[in-house]
Amino acid sequence: MKHYRNISAILIMVISLVFVASCSNSGGTGDNKSESEKAPRAQQQETTAQAAPEKKTVEEPKQPEEPPFANIILRDLDGKPARLSQLADGKPVYVAFFLSGGGPCMAQVPRINEIYEKYSGAGLAVFASSAQDPKEKILSARDKWQMKYPLRVYYLNDNSKYFRISAVPLNIVFDAKGRLVYKHRTPPPDTLLDMLLAK
User: Fold this and answer.
1) Given phi > 0 = left and psi -120 to 50 = alpha, else beta, which region is 40?
2) Low-confidence residues of the chain: pLDDT under 50
3) Within 10 Å of residue 146's Cβ, how many Cβ atoms?
4) In this structure, is residue 94 part of a structural domain?
5) Nearest partner of 92 among 115, 65, 110, judged by Cα
6) Domain, as residue range, for 128
7) Of 116, 95, 92, 89, nearest in space to 174 by CA
8) CA distance 93 to 178
9) What is the count of structural domains for the chain?
10) Residue 199 to residues 63, 115, 177, 180, 193: CA-CA distances in angstroms?
11) Does residue 146 sit within a domain?
12) Residue 180: CA atoms inside 13 Å, Cβ hemisphere, count?
């Protein structure tokens, strides 16, 4: 009887070992299967990433912008155009924009005459430019108000892209390098003009 008990115990141990081994093999197969499923997916994602072309943003080259000084066009009283940079001829330049019939504009004539007489011989280019007045009206205002400085005419069609005048009187000053250093309703002070001409 005791012999049979020993046999039963041995059988139970064998069955237990077989069960544990089968479970172990089953778990290992499951893990291997899981890893084997992951590997192709990772390889597929890597292949897709390598195959996808890189998107590069192509920026169009920007055209260099010329300063307004080089593009402001003022015509003489006969209609011949000239760029302000040509009129300045390498010197600082002062331009007073006006309307022939405008009271505030004509009130500035004595001060512009003073600037012209004092600084034109010292290296400052001085002009006054009417905002699209006809020639006859400009000449009439010149004689009436005794304008001593050269007169030009500003036309919007010549300058709409680079330099628009929204109101007059308007006084602007560029230095010898074409940089805008003054823009105001009133003529520039002597201190500014002295500083420009001292350089």
Assistant:
1) alpha
2) 2-4, 20, 26-32, 49, 58, 61, 63-66
3) 9
4) yes
5) 115
6) 68-198
7) 92
8) 9
9) 1
10) 32, 18, 11, 15, 10
11) yes
12) 12
